[in-house]
Write a structure and sequence with these properties.
CATH topology of one domain: Aminopeptidase
Strand order of the largest sheet: 1-2-3-4-5-6-8-7
Number of strands: 8
Order of helices and strands: EEHHHEEEHEHEEH
Number of helices: 6
Structural class: alpha+beta
Helix content: 25-40%
CATH architecture of one domain: 3-Layer(aba) Sandwich
Length: 188
């Protein structure tokens, strides 16, 4: 679904997509995106369909708790993915965790990969982060392959790490460092 003028302030632009910070005018496009992809994201992500959730999301971004990115296709301005940098810790640790989800209609076409690379570049260059981690349920093979392809390394296993859909779920912990992000950028 097209949204109102997402290109006003792209944070990064790639060959297929550009990333922008979520804004109030994106609310309905986001709602349509999560409804359209609800079955595709289960059992790994359960989204809230309450419109107030989006307002709370924007508030978390304003407070600096989260840095959100909406991924838009260059040719159509369609919302094709979402990436969130959560639990941002600066100073000596300079670390954060990632959450992400894409549109099933764009799966396997490179849009999420390029969007993630743009978001990682922003995380290192603009936020000054040294390390980003993604925690992934072991049976989410597409997501495991996704982070592997981008250059994340498996660091470990966290039993009952995160409560999703009312159940505590095991996760594999994957991470990427700033030098790997910079190196990958120079080789793509």
């Amino acid at each position: 679904m097209r949204i109102l003028s997402p290109r006003k302030s792209p944070l990064r632009v790639g060959r297929l997509v550009y990333i922008s910070a979520p804004a109030a005018q994106n609310k309905h496009a986001y709602q349509n995106f999560i409804r359209r992809n609800e079955d595709y994201h289960k059992p790994w992500v359960y989204h809230s369909f309450d419109l107030s959730y989006f307002d709370q999301y924007l508030t978390r971004i304003k407070r600096g708790v989260t840095q959100g990115f909406f991924i838009f296709e260059n040719d159509t301005d369609n919302l094709v993915g979402v990436i969130n940098i959560n639990n941002i810790l600066l100073g000596a640790i300079s670390s954060a965790s990632l959450g992400y989800y894409g549109d099933q209609d764009y799966a396997g076409r490179g849009h999420m990969t390029e969007g993630m690379r743009l978001a990682l570049d922003y995380a290192v260059a603009d936020l000054g982060l040294h390390r980003l981690e993604a925690n992934i349920q072991p049976d989410n093979i597409p997501s495991l392959n996704f982070v592997k392809n981008i250059g994340f390394k498996r660091e470990g296993f966290s039993p009952k790490y995160l409560k999703i859909g009312g159940k505590w779920r095991d996760h594999e912990r994957w991470a990427i460092l700033d030098e790997d992000i910079k190196s990958n950028k120079n080789h793509t």
